[in-house]
Design brief:
6-stranded mixed β-sheet; 4-stranded antiparallel β-sheet; alpha/beta; binds magnesium ion; Rossmann fold; globular; binds adenosine-5'-triphosphate; about 270 residues
Length: about 270
């Protein structure tokens, strides 16, 4: 049974339909990929699902129609997300960033002196850091971490709120191949541990390797869905990524590094 689904989701910015009549399902304990070229509507889909942009159609989470819920209500219900751009508070330590996300710190004014974390909270958050191989980073400021580690703290932060479903917007962006693969393995093991994930990423090697099922958007429209093997063989997907539809170069048109597009054609590498 789907723990998260959309029914005919639509988002318009003025006359532009950024997402059009999009229905998707994320099963319990499933890792579902959402891919597509730049501007395809991927982030807008997650914004609509998590309540950050008004949408038509419906969003069902854990058996409840949450279409009328605010973003805060959706987060409290267990629908988590990570952001495409950096989301960390640079003047809070890694542990404090996690506590803010778990709403155990008064975020207004960063009242550090009033922080009285309970020990079980601390050990739970340390376990989250451990699970992402961020052991020892709790007291560090995000600015002292590598880009890859910062991305991981973004994931840890989302996990600190104990989501049932986590929507991740390009968690591997900016990571090198090795870091990206390591992150992929960690996401996969979170899912194997029971978390359900909707994952956006441009790294085709990554998504085709770790996802159970994928949806492909182009210009706000669903152009394909299926297993990694089905997506890899889909002509419309290959055209969407490699086609020169915008009168730009291939790289500009699809916004993907060459290595990623070749992964799409050649498989997992
Ligand atoms: N707030 C906004 N106002 C107007 N147009 C927007 C807004 N947000 C997104 N768009 C447009 O909606 C379309 C979908 O954007 P979106 O950010 O969802 O794409 P994306 O698939 O996440 O792309 P990327 O891979 O570059 O992150 C784009 O054409 C974008 O310019
Ligand atoms: Mg995006």
């Amino acid at each position: 049974m789907a723990v998260l689904s959309t029914q005919g989701l639509g988002v318009a910015f003025g006359a532009k339909k950024a997402v059009n009549d999009f229905s998707l399902e994320v099963g319990e304990g499933q890792l579902v990929g959402l891919i597509g070229p730049n501007g395809a509507g991927k982030t807008t889909t997650i914004d609509a699902i998590t309540g950050f942009v008004p949408a038509t159609g419906a969003v069902t989470f854990d058996g409840t129609d949450i279409s009328s819920f605010s973003s805060t209500q959706r987060a409290r219900a267990g629908l988590g997300r990570t952001w495409q751009s950096s989301e960390l508070f640079d003047d809070l330590t890694v542990m404090e960033n996690l506590q803010v996300a778990a709403e155990r710190i008064d975020v207004k004014g960063f009242l550090r002196d009033l922080v009285r974390p309970r020990n079980d909270d601390l050990s739970e958050m340390e376990a989250i850091l451990d699970s992402l191989e961020l052991t020892g980073a709790a007291g560090v400021l995000p600015t002292d971490l590598s880009h890859g580690q910062r991305k991981l703290v973004g994931v840890a932060r989302a996990l600190a709120a104990r989501p049932k479903v986590l929507c991740m917007d390009e968690p591997a962006a900016g990571l090198d191949t090795e870091e990206s693969q390591a992150l992929g393995r960690r996401i996969r093991s979170l899912v194997d541990g029971g978390l359900s994930v909707l994952l956006i990423d441009h790294d085709m090697g990554l998504v085709l390797t770790i996802c159970d099922y994928l949806y492909v958007l182009d210009f706000g429209q669903l152009i394909a869905e299926g297993t990694p093997a089905q997506i890899r063989a889909d002509k419309r997907v290959i055209t969407a990524y490699l086609g020169d539809r915008h009168g730009e170069s291939e790289a500009e048109a699809n916004g993907m590094p060459e290595a990623s597009t070749s992964n799409l054609q050649e498989g997992e590498g």
